[in-house]
Amino acid sequence: MVRRLIVGVDEVGYGAIAGPLVVGAVAFDTRTRCPILKREKFERGADVPVGDSKTIKHTLLPRLVTLIEEACVDYDVIQVSPKEIDRVGVGPARITAIKTAVQRLLERIAIQERVTDVAGYKVIVDGDICLGECRFQYTPQVKADATVWQVGAASIMAKYKQVHAMLRLHEEFKKYGWDQNKGYPTPDHRKALKEHGASKYHRRSYKPVQDVL
Description:
The chain is of the alpha/beta class.
């Protein structure tokens, strides 16, 4: 008997003007309950359930990632480089990354579960998005990262990778403040972009970067 799974899918970094776009896809057994980071395991505040990464402090991401890894069946994370985003456009790059992450994940699970039919696996993708022709069925859902915890888990996995990518890039280009803005066009980031010009990690197809080229 094929067990039923829910695959949550989300992306992080769509609106950033530097660094990678990151897509996460995470599969859970439908019987699995939402993982919760208990208050006693971190500094202060209330319990933190797995959910939309935008509402979670970056310092808590590593521990939530550990909870997700322990609770999920499997997951996949894909990073899309600024160069690829500029080459094909952020929209198509996002769609390709989502389809690739989900397909790779489903193929691995099929091998692990020793099944050939994954039709019983429900795939929920955050946002009002059309993936076009693909090899799996999916449900697009607006704000699913905030209402479907499995999609929130995908958001956390993607955010964790995106944050760490920007921290690594910050070590090379500290003048842009990527340790703080994580590549998003904050006022300080825009100011640094105008003062120093674009780096090799900026997305040249984005208007704030085009304006300084």
